[in-house]
Amino acid sequence: MNRCKPSWNALVFVALCAVLAPAAAQEPIQTQNEAALGGRNFPQNTLRGRFMVVNSPEIQLDGQPERLAPGVRIRSAQNMLVVPANLTGQNLLVNYRRDPAGQVNEIWILTPDEARAKRASADKPLLNFWPFVADTGPRDDGKTPFDQLPRYGQ
Cα 129 from chain centroid? Predict the structure, then answer.
């Protein structure tokens, strides 16, 4: 039993949505293709380090004391979520990302195949906001005379 007949406007709207939906799709996230070596795809600004939970949320990254962000996501080598308390005392090789406050908010425990893949961003500084840590362009070492500093538009 049909209670309402489809109107012409509704059919045109559905057709337009079907045509325009692929055009409105977002750009894919840039990744470093570690999947080619049998691993997962990690975001481009992911760092690598040695990770150990001391007493959650206190951790050590490469031997330095750090702090986990509230709502941190830790993924095991099988890509399943792990509770930080289950990893206490284990020294693991991981890929990780930081939030804008500098706290670690995403961690991926690596498989042996993923560990063999070299991270392009492993030598980046503490906060991995690429526009603020770009290695290109002139730098001031503090000893450059004022008249030799780069000017706006150079």
Answer: 10
